[in-house]
Automatic annotation (TrEMBL):
Domain RNA polymerase sigma factor 70 region 4 type positions: 118-166
Stated name of the protein: RNA polymerase sigma factor
Taxonomic path: Bacteria, Pseudomonadati, Bacteroidota, Bacteroidia, Marinilabiliales
Gene3D superfamilies for this protein: 1.10.1740.10, Winged helix-like DNA-binding domain superfamily/Winged helix DNA-binding domain (1.10.10.10)
PANTHER family: RNA POLYMERASE ECF-TYPE SIGMA FACTO, RNA POLYMERASE SIGMA FACTOR HI_1459-RELATED
GO molecular function ontology, one term from the record: DNA binding
GO biological process: DNA-templated transcription initiation
Keywords carried by this UniProt record: DNA-binding, Sigma factor, Transcription, Transcription regulation
NCBIfam families found in the cross-reference section: sigma70-ECF
């Protein structure tokens, strides 16, 4: 970030390469699986980095900081929307699967992943954010606490209830 502050374009390119897919996925999942909205938010977050690199405080962990910014952007978007739930649009679970499985196993995984994503979409935004940050981005509870600006105990509680709700919904559909 110091190099970016000094106008180093290769530093920005490196940062973009490291984080664009992770941030895109986060925006995609948090904002109703809308590719265009996810791309818009991805562009906005990198414009913020270009235009205001001084917002990052040296000594802080960059990953936690950038996901805090991303989460706050999502919260602002939720406030601006009249309808907070959006039906899952384009889902392509194949992009998350290994090609080494048999056709039948792949189909079963596709169905399970599609159902799982559909159920995640039906969770509250806070639960959805915690699940994505924990299991997709592999953040620790402490890092999630910093990103969401909540106590670790609250994160643990919400994670427990999110997992419980998701497990119950999947069991009700006899998928688990």
């Amino acid at each position: 970030m110091t190099a970016i502050k000094n106008g180093n374009q290769s530093a920005f390119s490196e940062l973009y390469e490291r984080f664009n897919l992770r941030l895109y996925y986060y925006f995609f999942r948090m904002l109703g699986n809308d590719k265009e909205v996810a791309n818009d938010f991805l562009q906005d977050i990198f414009l913020k980095i270009i235009n205001k690199p001084e917002l990052f405080k040296p000594g802080n962990k960059f990953t936690s900081w950038i996901f805090t910014v991303a989460h706050n952007m999502c919260k602002n978007e939720y406030r601006n929307r009249e309808v907070r739930k959006i039906v899952c649009k384009d889902e392509n679970p194949e992009q998350f699967l290994s090609n080494e499985n048999s056709y039948e196993e792949t189909r079963n995984k596709e169905n399970l992943i599609s159902e799982l994503f559909a159920e995640i979409e039906n969770l509250e935004e806070d639960q959805k954010a915690i699940l994505l940050l924990k299991y997709k981005e592999n953040f620790s509870l402490k890092e999630i606490s910093e990103i969401l600006e909540l106590p670790v105990g609250t994160i643990k509680s919400r994670l427990y209830y999110a997992r419980t709700a998701l497990t119950k919904k999947m069991a009700d559909k006899e998928l688990l």
